From TrEMBL:
NCBIfam families: PRK13189.1. Keywords: Antioxidant, Oxidoreductase, Peroxidase, Redox-active center. GO terms for molecular function: peroxiredoxin activity. The active site is at C45 (cysteine sulfenic acid (-soh) intermediate). Residues 3-159 form the Thioredoxin domain. Gene3D superfamilies: Antioxidant, Horf6, Chain A, domain2 (3.30.1020.10), Glutaredoxin (3.40.30.10). InterPro entries: AhpC/TSA, Peroxiredoxin_AhpC-typ, Peroxiredoxin_C, PRX_1cys, Thioredoxin-like_sf, Thioredoxin_domain. This is Putative peroxiredoxin 2. It comes from Pseudomonas protegens (strain DSM 19095 / LMG 27888 / CFBP 6595 / CHA0). GO terms for cellular component: cytosol.
Length: 212
């Protein structure tokens, strides 16, 4: 059965380009982004892994560790990393799981037989420090993911975990946010949102981002 939001991300032990990984232990208290790609030495994946390497500081600022996966073996990963570094003008700075035995692919349902019998799809999981799955996305092999969007979702998750707000369509860090509908008490609203709010409708109340 496929994994759902709020499920605990399955733990595993698997080989990687950075040696053996015990997943939960490797995550520690960090957030995690686990993402699969169809195969080594493929063009879209090369750009995705290169771009993720370039976002190292952005991930670090948010306390996030990235880890990639494909069903290719570790010696293939090492050769491919040389190509990624050369062509994407970066250095791959996160592990790539070598899931040749499909242990992790099976746990995370990463092979979709009606799309392809053997290759992993382009799935991605955001995992919080309690090891809960907070975002799942699956893209087709032909479409590279937008990693700015992943950072935007992580910003939203980290904000809304700490304040009684949600983020509206196309929200970017620093924009107005909405007050959660369950919060009704005016005194509490004033205390939580001292910058005030505007009620477009009783259920649509916008307030400046509280941690700015
Ligand atoms: C790619 O990563 O470039 C790719 C992989 C499988 C099918 C199409 C593109």
């Amino acid at each position: 059965m496929s994994l759902r939001l709020g499920d605990i991300a399955p733990d595993f032990e698997q080989d990687s380009s950075a040696g053996k990984i015990r997943f939960h232990e490797w995550l520690g208290d960090s957030w995690g982004v686990l993402f699969s790609h169809p195969a080594d030495f493929t063009p879209v994946c090369t750009t995705e892994l290169g771009f993720t390497a370039k976002l190292k500081d952005e991930f670090a600022q948010r306390g996030v560790k990235a880890i990639a996966l494909s069903v290719d073996p570790v010696d293939s990963h090492h050769k491919w990393i040389e190509d990624i570094n050369e062509t994407q003008n970066t250095r791959v700075n996160f592990p790539i799981l070598a899931d040749a035995d499909r242990k992790v692919s099976d746990l995370y349902d990463l092979i979709h037989p009606n799309a392809n019998d053997t290759l992993t799809v382009r799935s991605l999981f955001v995992i919080d420090p309690n090891k809960k799955i907070r975002l799942t996305i699956t893209y087709p092999a032909s479409t590279g993911r937008n990693f700015h969007e992943i950072l935007r979702v992580i910003d939203s998750l980290q904000l809304t975990d700490n304040y009684k707000v949600a983020t509206p369509a196309n929200w970017q860090d620093g924009d107005e946010v909405v007050i959660v509908p369950s919060l009704k008490d005016e005194e509490e609203i004033k205390r939580r949102f001292p910058k005030g709010y505007r009620a477009v409708k009783p259920y649509l109340r916008l307030t400046p981002q509280p941690n700015r």
